[in-house]
Amino acid sequence: MTLRIVEHVGKTDVGRQRSVNEDSLVLAPPFFAVADGMGGAKAGEVASAMAAETFEGESDSGEPAEAQLTRILREANRRIYDLAVSDDSHRGMGTTVTAAKVTGNEVSLGHVGDSRAYRLRDGELEQLTRDHSLVAELERSGQITPEAAEHHPQRSIITRALGPEPDVQVDTYTLAGRDGDLFLICSDGLTSMISDDELASILRASETLDGAADSLVRAANQSGGKDNITVVLFRLGNGDGEVELPAEDETIAGQLKATEVHEAFEETTAPQPAATLPPELPADATIVAPRTALPKQPPPKRRRGGRVKTLAKTLFALAVLAAVGTGLYVASRQVYFLGTNDAGLVTLYRGVPYELPFGVDLYEEQYASGVPARAIPATRRKRVLDHEWRGRNDAEDLLRTLERGQLSG
Predict the structure, then answer these.
(1) Is 314 found in the same domain as 276?
(2) How far is CA 179 from the centre of its chain?
(3) Widest CA span in the chain
(4) How far is residue 297's CA from residue 291's CA, in Å, rounded to a whole number?
(5) Cis-peptide into 30, omega within 30 deg
(6) What is the residue range of 276's domain?
(7) Spatial CA neighbour of 35 closest among 46, 154, 212
(8) Which among 196, 201, 228, 307 counts the fewest CB atoms within 10 Å?
(9) 9 has which bridge partners?
(10) pLDDT in tens, 350-383
């Protein structure tokens, strides 16, 4: 059966430290693209817009997808270069571009620069493109480690872009798609702010692509928002055509926006219906929370002729343990605390941060936010994430404050 694009969305944001958004995006199925402009004044904005405009009027021309993407990007390069050399106000402008075309059961990519394409398949995230940047080249050649590359002061220097030269080399790839594959194309304003682990956790936890796009942008801004942030998401699936998506003001069953976390909880502490729960992490996700086991009772000492006393002490110890466990279980239905998940995102848990013997957890994950723990000011981080027992409203208010970025040092 032929795969279809069953859902797609794009979002761009100026970030927190720029006054102009120099990113552009293309949402024109079967084409999707992100362009990240560079240059003085508004030249970067012009370059990225010109690259996006080159996709206008393109269709399934019958030519191989990789050849078509190469032709489009080279045409964009020519237009940008010609304007840059003819107009001093645009001299030196350029843009990255990462583009995709869906053809039948295949996804083809065309790539120039350091904007990236990812695929989430069966919960595993894979980077599909190779950055054309100085630091990436140093890392690939083994001259620096991945850890050093992540914090290298020259990581923003790219080695290939559309515009600086009259011709450009375009990297192309074609991959076989599967039902459920989720593709992400993004500018480095996202990937320079959050790690791939954080990115994957957000994608896995999001019920809809619209919610995923919002959470990704919010996470990048929470981590500093040093650059423009642009994300394009599309999902493949089996079917006869594209799924009709609800309007922005319509309610999607099970959907929860991060800024509306308080609306997802019941007014009582009774177990909640599945339809009202916030998005859950996948089964293979590891909850990083304190696993403080209850202290084991020492074995009763054996005394001569004291089997009855030994049995009584054993039963008493078990009764104490059961009473403590019952008390903790009851408490776990009444309280909440904040911690982090395996990707380092601030997460709301219901219960107490303990586990009983035999691996019985006394807490459960309620909602994984898009806020990386490292985005919280160091002076407040320890206090916020100390697993303090809180009432439902207190925990939700604190999480909302974090998501709005209003927690000061």
Answers:
(1) yes
(2) 21
(3) 104
(4) 18
(5) yes
(6) 256-409
(7) 46
(8) 307
(9) 233
(10) 887 766 666 667 778 888 777 777 677 766 676 6
Measure the CA–CA gap between 48 and 33, rounded to whole angstroms. Answer: 11
Tell me which residue has tokens 């922005």.
248
Same-domain pairing of 184 and 333? no
Distance CA 185, CA 115 (A): 7
Q: Are residues 275 and 161 in the same domain?
A: no
Q: Which structure tokens are listed for 46? A: 């012009």
Residue with tokens 């050849």: 67
Strands 229-238 and 292-293, how do they pair? unpaired
Residue 274: inside a domain, yes or no? yes
- The verdict on residue 54 lying in a domain is yes
DSSP assigned state of 378: H
* Residues 261, 187 share a domain: no
Query: What is the per-residue pLDDT across 388-404, written as a single tens digit (0 to 9) for each?
Result: 778 777 777 787 777 76
**Alpha carbon of 136 to those of 125, 129, 148, 301: distances in Å?**
19, 11, 11, 64
Read off the amino acid at residue 156.
S
**Exposure letters 83-105 (e unless 16+ CB within 10 A, then b):** bbeeeeebeebbbbbbbbbbbee
335 Cβ neighbours under 8 A, 6+ residues apart: 350, 351, 352, 389, 390, 391
SS3 (DSSP) at 200: helix
Alpha-helical segments (H) within 87-176: 134-140, 146-150
> What's this model's pTM, rounded to 2 decimal places?
0.62
How big is the CA angle at 344 (ends 21 and 18), to the nearest 5 degrees? 15
Question: d(Cα 199, Cα 207) in Å, to the nearest integer?
Answer: 15
Could you give the C-alpha distances from 9 to 59, 213, 231, 270, in angstroms and in order?
A: 19, 7, 8, 36
Q: Which CATH number is 174's domain given? A: 3.60.40.10
